[in-house]
Amino acid sequence: MSEKNIEDLVLSICGTLIMAVGIQCFLEPAHLVAGGVTGIGIMLNAVTTERFGIPTPLWFVNVTLNFPLFLAAWKMQGGRFVGKTIMTSLLFSFMLFLVQGINFYTGDLILSSVYGGVLVGIGLGLVLRCGATTGGVDLAAYLMQMVWHRPSISKKIFIMDSVVIFSGMIMFGSINGLYAILSVFITERCTKWVIEGGEAVRGAIVISDKAKEIGGILNLRLNRNVVAFCTKGTLGQPGEEILFCIFSQKEIQAAKSIIMNIDRKAIFLLTDIREVLGEAAITK
Fold first, then answer.
1. Which of 46, 66, 190, 282 has the fewest CB atoms within 10 Å, measured from its CB?
2. Burial label, 61 (beta-carbon count in 10 A; 0-12, 13-18, 19+)
3. Claim to verify: residue 143 and residue 42 sit in the same structural domain
4. Which of 196, 226, 246 is the last residue of a domain?
5. What is the Cα–Cα distance from 24 to 146, expressed in whole angstroms?
């Protein structure tokens, strides 16, 4: 097994375990339906426990509802595409089974929504970093996209999760529903933080006729290499140079001050950088 495969396996194990703790130990006891297959499992468990006195474990619901999706994905895309997703989903179901006896819920919906959202977000981020998913609505949306091209995959996921959350709000009340929405927001932010890293990296584009001077000062004061692009002016006018440089979030204000002090007419644009390799990724 290669070093990359070992790293992915470790991330999958840690990620699914953290997700399972967040869902099984915080969200499920508080009846916080935060979308997805596990949200359906929370509602199903509540119904079978109340009416028949028989609980429906979340791990069982996860396996049962994902199984037909795996078969469809296998038939439509082949085993290579769905293999890692199947492994991660089964691992997630095992982790749900492993922690099902643990319960940290004390009746405080705020603590449950916050801690549940943070743990699920961190765990999901680790799983996504190794290039896998836990199946569920993500896989369902991808398969639906192959048949119905509109709306987009992200909108399909949003619609399906919204239906699940709204159903949970009807079943458990509006207060639980609102805290579930808060948990979803926290999950999204924590997932993004894990995937992109705790330190934000920004790409800056500077358009100025004093580009060389600006580039030299940025390199001198902030120790950042600057790439210059030459442009052609319109109607015979001389062109301006375009600078591109990568900064940490902490350096943005200092860079802006340097640029504005040299040329107040300069155009300063910022863009998010999702992934940077090499020395440029090092932030202060």
1. 282
2. buried
3. yes
4. 196
5. 33
Same domain? For 28 and 93 the reply is: yes
The boundaries of the domain holding residue 213 are 201-281
One domain for residues 275 and 191: no
Q: How many domains does the chain have?
A: 2
- For residue 187, which of 156, 165, 215 has the smallest C-alpha distance? 165
Give the tens place of pLDDT for each residue, 214-223: 888 888 777 7
Total-model pTM:
0.72
* pLDDT (tens digit per residue) in 85-136: 888 888 999 999 999 888 787 788 999 999 999 999 999 888 888 777 787 8
Where among 160, 180, 196 does a domain terminate? 196
